[in-house]
Amino acid sequence: KMLFESVEKLQKEKADQQEMLAAMDLKADKAALRTKVDCSQFEENMEQLDDRMQELQNQISAQKEHWNKVQQQFSDAMEEKLDREELKAFRRRLDDAWSRNIATLETRLLGDSGAGFKKQLPVPFTCLSCDRMLTMQVPGQ
What we know:
By secondary structure, the chain is mainly alpha-helical. Helices cover about 70% and strands about 5% of the residues. The chain has a domain at about 45-105. The protein has helices spanning about 1-15, 15-25, 30-35, 40-80, 85-110; strands at about 125, 135. The protein has a two-stranded antiparallel sheet. The longest helix is centred in the middle third of the chain and has 44 residues, at about 40-80. It is rod-shaped. The protein starts with a helix and ends in a 7-residue tail after the last strand. InterPro entries: DUF4795. It holds the Pfam family DUF4795. Keywords: Coiled coil.
């Protein structure tokens, strides 16, 4: 009698074979499970990555501070060079020469706008063959 009761109980509670196969398909395959990352390993790797990123950020900020320092030194050196009296005098001479050249150019451009310029010929003319002095009348005089 106890044997029949346990058989009936097992039949009621037994799993259907189809349901069992479907459930096994849903569960993770052991080979696929090995390829998954362990949570603790993932966190450890993320901590290492975070430490490395922090280290790189510190290096970048140190490099930026060094660059700013060098730039400031360069700027100070340029300021010292530009404040020297020799450079001020040289700049004044350059400005004067520049303004003279501009004025000369303006007088040339705005001056005589004729088609040609009168050019003075050398006064003592000499013969090409014998080098004797000649007196000649220049046309237009």
